[in-house]
TrEMBL record:
This is RRM domain-containing protein. It comes from Ensete ventricosum. Keywords: mRNA processing, mRNA splicing, Nucleus, RNA-binding. It is found in: Nucleus. One of its GO terms (molecular function) is mRNA binding. It holds the Pfam family RRM_1. The lineage of its organism: Eukaryota, Viridiplantae, Streptophyta, Embryophyta, Tracheophyta.
Length: 125
């Protein structure tokens, strides 16, 4: 398939390409077997983690054994329709995820301090 031609050409991959994919907009009731069926077509999968709590429902992490398989999956599955939902398949980027988590912590801390000292924002009025 396409992965063989990528390897033979010794193609240089962009820096954001890695083996871990972040998948959004999944149906909430998708099973791990269905995920393996969809993503397994593009190569050997090491692990799939599906979000189960309120904040992570509809998302998953898919880890491939080979980086070229992950690239092929992103190329083919971005925009793929599953149960009338179009998948958003991205390369997992640790730095971006850490920034989002840090931002959420900062917002929570500000809210906590505002409540502690009785400060209201212009939104509250």
């Amino acid at each position: 398939m396409a992965t063989i031609s990528l390897r033979k050409a010794n193609t240089r991959l962009p820096p954001e390409v890695n083996r871990v994919l972040y998948v959004r907009n999944l149906p909430f009731n998708i099973s791990s077997e269905e995920m393996y069926d969809i993503f397994g077509k593009y190569g050997a999968i090491r692990q799939i983690r599906i979000g189960t709590n309120k904040d992570s429902r509809g998302t998953a992490f898919v880890v491939y054994e080979d980086i070229y398989d992950a690239k092929t999956a992103v190329d083919h599955l971005s925009g793929f329709n599953v149960a009338n939902r179009y998948l958003i398949v991205l390369y997992y980027q640790q730095a971006k995820m850490a920034k989002k988590a840090d931002q959420k912590k900062k917002e929570d801390e500000i809210t906590r301090l505002q409540e502690k000292y009785g400060i209201s924002t212009s939104k509250d009025k």
